[in-house]
Amino acid sequence: MKQISLLVAGAALLAAPGIAATRSPQVAVPVATVNLQIAVTNVRGNAGRIHVDLCRQHEFLKTCSIEAEVKAVKGTTIVTVPNVQPGDYAAQVSYDENGNGKVDRAIFGIPKEGVGFSRDAPIRLSPPKWQDAMFSLSGDTSITLRLRYFMGGDNKP
Predict the structure, then answer these.
(1) Model's pTM, two decimal places?
(2) Mean pLDDT, rounded, for 44-64
């Protein structure tokens, strides 16, 4: 009963003439961004480009809102993705050897060019699951992943 009386008294004070409730204006607080560096290993040539899609869970295996692309370097190619908001992500990486802007596929959708996922998430008869590729980004971070080839490529560790 005492709590109800206090609530009524507080409401009366706010409604009284001459007393106005004030709210501080909404100020957008900038969110600090971080940089992600991805070392893509097992790149089998210098032709073409290494493409990275950085995905939130709802974007995974679809069109991702963050992309980066660099010229391929045989062996290991470093891709930097600057100004990323902290959070949980998965990286989808492809090696566009012929520079046509897509992953070429064979029968049944098998990639003809190298593909890889963060945490080297397994690819077993289907793309990996989110939880296998997901990593948390809270500060400047470096990750490494390995390209895999399913047709005419080098898949040795």
Answers:
(1) 0.77
(2) 96
